[in-house]
Predict the 3D structure of the following.
Amino acid sequence: MAEFQVRKDDFTKYRIVEVASAPELTDGAIRVKIERFAFTANNITYAVTGDRLGYWQFFPPGGEDPDGWGMVPVWGFAEVVESKSDEVPVGDRLFGYFPPSDDLDMTPTRVTDQRIIDGAAHRAKLPPAYNSYSRVNAEPGYDRAMDNLRMLLWPLHITSFCLWDALQENHWHGARQVVVVSASSKTGIGLAYALDDDPKAPPAIAITSRRNLDFVEKLGLYQRSVTYEALSDIDATIPTVIVDMSGNREVLGRLHAHLGDNMKRCLNVGLTHWDDVNAGNGLIAERSEIFFAPSHIQQRLKDWGPDGFARKTSSFMLQTAAKSQRWLKLRSIEGLEGLADVYDDVCAGCMAPDQGLIIEL
Ligand SMILES: NC(=O)c1ccc[n+]([C@@H]2O[C@H](COP(=O)([O-])OP(=O)(O)OC[C@H]3O[C@@H](n4cnc5c(N)ncnc54)[C@H](OP(=O)(O)O)[C@@H]3O)[C@@H](O)[C@H]2O)c1
């Protein structure tokens, strides 16, 4: 079996490693074959924050000389091909968090008809939302034709939903506009769908790069779209909340300074501009906060229960997936070698924003 590994200290470097067949399964374990997964800037962010947020710990790499290498988690589908579990048979299919590799051994715990938790010891302290897998064969109305859209958009649009939920719970922080930075990202677009659909929400304003401006304008979701070079075009006379997917400290510094007292809150969500190394003069740290979707999900699972959470989010996810089909171009990539061919472009942010990469193994 093969694994796509990246250097932890320089994730622009990668290799495909052949790993000897896994040993016999222990009692209670299952082996899944990973069928397909999506790949976006979000996966690059897992590498950027791999040490800080523990992403390297999910799927330790195998093969010879694994020191210094790691596997970036991906969202995808897998089929159970061997089982020593009484509860999870061969042929079951799972949606969730996988390594970019041919297969994975898992330890199903807390098994219900709907989901399993991977109880592998090394994952116990990692955010629970990442350890939960849906058993798709048992889902009412499950449609295999939606797998690609689901694995591409679910992890991003669930974040968009959480952002909208957090903003409205906080009464938009008193803002009369929501500025979305890195507005061409799928997470940003998902938030723009949520705001557009909510009559009580303030309008969304896009900030994006020159090359993505036309795409962002054509979405018709943002009241106004400006480039990183033209931040002063944003109305600084009204209270504003910023939702930042870029992590670009130079841009945020300029934006905070431009908005001044009207910068009511800045939610730091992403790091698409991971290679920005500027200090960020002008940042208003005391009104900025890190937003981590798995923590918000955990809180809402407590507040609403798993069924309530699924009910509230599923119609949103279905709607945003349907709307995204107006512009999204799914692009099928063959195997881990195919991922290697596009990896540099995803790292460098050169992918056209309407592309949705689907890696088929
Ligand atoms: N905090 C959380 O819980 C959470 C959850 C989900 C996602 N996120 C984060 O949200 C961000 C967006 O993820 P996504 O998967 O939605 O992204 P995506 O759809 O792949 O976004 C692509 C866009 O990101 C920008 N970009 C990407 N790489 C770049 C680079 N190297 N240099 C400059 N611009 C680059 C470009 O947008 P522009 O030209 O518009 O800047 C590009 O069009 C990621 O950082 C992700 O980790 C965070």
The chain is about 30% helix and 25% strand.
